[in-house]
Amino acid sequence: MSCTHDHNCEDHECSSDWSLYKHIDLSKVTALNESVSGSAKSVFKAWEQRLLSSGEHLESNEGDPELLVFVPFTSDVKIKSISIVGGPEGTSPSKLRVFINREGIDFSDVESMQAVQEWELAENLQGVLEYQTRYSKFQSVGNITLHFPESFGGDTTQIRYIGFKGEATQLKRDVVATIVYEIRPNPSDHKTKAETGGGFSQVE
């Protein structure tokens, strides 16, 4: 299901307050079949800048419109909607398949995997469409992989903007990892006086 912006965005959670852009771990964003290495990072930007272009965009290799984009977050997020602004003249993506919390997957994997959700996309050159998620399935998202199988007939797929709306947890992912590490018992913390010259044995 898509949402058009013919309403007051402040009342419909469309404002930048709901953008998850600042929670994307941009340095770790990657894409398979991108014609220019690293160009996938350029399509993630603030909501207000979604139609601004410096000439950079994500494009598949000539003659092969399929793209696979991996997006990690700095904290777990809940995703309410996804927005895609594609390219002109049939180069916008026509379909989106999404996988959650699956790292390192490639084109052969996604062909056999069940997507969490799929959408038939429209050509959204003006950035007025958003695609609503099945929200209960998009909780605790640490990373998301976006599979664009085809374009609207173009020899390539072009993407100018990808945006996510939702909420982020307050706890950063690296902080969670530190907490897990700290609560694991450290044997050196349980050494007793026998090992330090005090006459007692190690506690089992």
Automatic annotation (TrEMBL):
Residues 9-184 form the PITH domain. Signal peptide: none annotated. Pfam families: PITH. Belongs to the PITHD1 family. This is PITH domain-containing protein 1. The lineage of its organism: Eukaryota, Viridiplantae, Streptophyta, Embryophyta, Tracheophyta. The gene is LOC104714065.
